[in-house]
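Feature request, filed as a ticket because there's no other form

It would be nice if the structure record came with a short human-readable summary line next to the C-alpha cells. Right now we just get the raw output. Example of a typical job, pasted below so the devs can see what we mean:
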Amino acid sequence: IAATQPSTDWHLKENAREHHTSKFSSEELIVRRGQAFTITFNGTERPEQNLIFIAETGPKPSKATKTLATFDISSTVSKEGWSAVLQSSSSSSVSISISSPHNAVIGRYRLSVQTGSSSPQSLGTFVLLFNPWSSGDDVFLPNKAECEEYVLEEFGIIFAGNKNHISSFGWNFGQFQGDILNICLSILDRSLYYRQDPITDVSHRHDPRYLGRVLSAMVNANDDQGVVLGNWSGKYEGGKNPTSWTGSGEILQSWKKSGFKPVKYGQCWVFAAVLTTVLRCLGIPTRTITNFSSAHDADGNLRVDEFYDADGNHLERGADSVWNFHVWNESWFTRNDLGPSYSGWQVLDATPQEESGGIYQCGPASQHAIKEGEVDLDYDGPFVFAEVNADCMYWNYDSATGKKTLIFSKSTEIGASISTKAVGRDNRVDVTRDYKYEEGSAKEREIFKKARKKLGLEDKFDPTAPKQEEVEQKPDISGKFKVAGSLEVGKDLNLLLVLENLQSDAKTVNVNMTAWSTLYTRRRVNQIWKDSISVTLAPKEEKQFPIKIKYPEYQQQLTTDKTIQVTALCHVEDGIQVLVKRNITLDNPGIDIQVLGEAKVNKEVFVEVAFTNPINEEVKDCVLQVEGSDLLQGILELRIPPLKASEKSSTKFKLIPSEAGPKHLLVNFSCDKFADIKTFKMVNVIN
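Raw output as currently delivered:
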C-alpha cells in the first residue's frame, strides 16, 4: 500500500448534473439516494483487488441501524444495500460507481476505502438527500414539472388577505444558497428527538414521515430552541415584525450566527416558508398552502365558539379562534403506515398552536384522510380536519349574569379558497376540493358526522350541544356589510350596512356597531370607531346605511396586518338578535420595479424602484429591502429620504446575476405610514 492518503476526484459537476443538485454551491459532493455516482481516487496499488468501501453516518454508525455499510466491488448494482461497480482502473487510479439503497438514511456520510488487511483510509465526506426523481424512493414524484417546482424552485408565492379579498406576496426560499444545507442538517442534530437518543434518531432519517414531524417541531422555537419564535401580540420590540421578512435565508443564517437562538419573530407564513426551504433542501417535495377562514379548534370538538357582548364587541372568551388565513405545508410522500390510498400530499404545520405528543408539532396528516373524515389516522387528523371543516357557533355573552345565548351557527364558514402557487407559473390554484367535498353538500355533512363519530362526539351525550333554550331560532331580519369604493391604506373606508326585513310586519331594530383593528388571527388590538342607530323597517323592506371611517380615524390604530373587523349587533324588538360582521383587509399602495436593460450572467444590470406617496402628509423613515436568489448576495438595504404629499421617489441599484434562467427579485418598502409594501419581478437572466 502506498503510504500517501488517497486523493479523491468527486466528479462534482457530472454527479450534480445527474442528481439534480447543480444548484447547490458546494465544494462537497451532494447526491440523491438510490442512484449511482462516480468517484475516482489514487494512492492504492493494484486497486481492483480486495477493495472494501465503508460509508457511515451519525455519531455511532452500525449495520443494525443502517448507518454503516461495508461493500466490496461487484459486477452489478445491489437491489438492497450499497454497492460499488468498477468503471475503469490504471496503475495509479481507479474509478468506481457507487450506489446507495432507495431507503438509505439521509445526511452527511464519511466514505473510506480499505485494501486487504490494512487500516481504512478516508476518501472524504458527501451528503446524501431524498430522491423524488427515483421510483423506488418514498418521495418519488412522477411528474417532472412538479419536481422542478416543489424541490428545485427557490421562489414562491404565499397567499394571504381574507376569503373575500385574496392577496399574495413573493418569498425567497433560497434552499440552495450558501450554507443553507449545513444549517438544515444542524437543525436535525438539535431536535429533542436527537438529544434524547441520537442513535435511534439518525437511524430514522430514511423516513420522510419521521423527518417531516421532527422538522415541524424544530422550525418553531417552542420546546426545543428551534428556529423561529412566534409572536401574535401586535408588538414586535426586540425583533423583526413578521410581515417584514422576504425570504428564509436571512432567518436561517441568523439562527446559526446567534449560536442557535430562536429568531424573532414569526407568524404562520414564516414558519411554513422556512419549513418549505428545509424540506426542499433535503429533497422532499413541499409547497405552502393557505386556508382562508381557518379554524383553531382548541378543545377538539370540531366546533369553534365565538362570543359577542351586547354592543357587538367580539370577546376574547374561550381558546377557539378563526383566523382570516392560516398557512401550512404539504409534502409529498408515501404512507406505508396507513396504506396506498393515503399516500401523496401530507399536511405538516410548524406554527405552534396545540401540543401533539407533548410538544408543538403537527402532522404529517394525509390530505386524503382529512377529506374522507378519517380523523383517527396518524397524525393530528382532528386538528387539521377542524381547520378546514369546523362548524361556527356565535354566542351573545352577558358578563353580568354569565348567560350565553346562541345567535346563530354556520357550517359553511370555515375552510374557504384553500390556495397554493401553480406549477411553473405565478397563478393561484384552488385546492379546496382536495380537502373536502363541496361545502353544504350531503356528502360533506356525512363526512363531518363521520369525523365527529370517530372522535366520540356524536353518540354519547355531548356537553357542548345547545340546550333547549339555545336552539337556533329563525331571525326576523338579515344583514350584511358591503364594501363601497377601494380598500386601500391611506384612503377613507366606505361601507354599507344592508338590513332586510324578512317578515310581513314592520320591525324596529336597534343596531350597535363597532370597528376594531385586528391581527390576521382576528385578535382585536384597537377600537377604531363605534356608533349606534335605531331603524324601522317596513314589511319586507331593505335599507342601506352608509358608514364612513376616515383615514385619520384608523391610521394610528391599524396593525401591520392592515385588518379591520366591523360588527353590527342588531337587537330586534320582540325578536332575536342578529349579528352582522365582516373582516376587511386593506391593500397597501403599489410599488413599481423596472429592470433597465438586459440581465446577463456576471454582468451589472441596473434596477429602478419607484414609489409615490399617496397621502396628504409627509412619510419618513423610508427603507427599501431587496433580495433574490442568484441575482444578489444576501439582502440589500437602502435608506430613502422622506417624501412629501404625492411626491414620487425613484431608487436605482445594481445587480450582478450569478446564474442564467428565470429569477425573481423581491422588494419590500417600509415607512412610518406604510408597513412592508411588497412586490416581486421576474428577471430573465441570459448567458
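Something like this underneath would help us a lot:
The CA atoms of residues 40 and 95 lie 4 Å apart.
Residues 459-463 have pLDDT under 50 and may be disordered.
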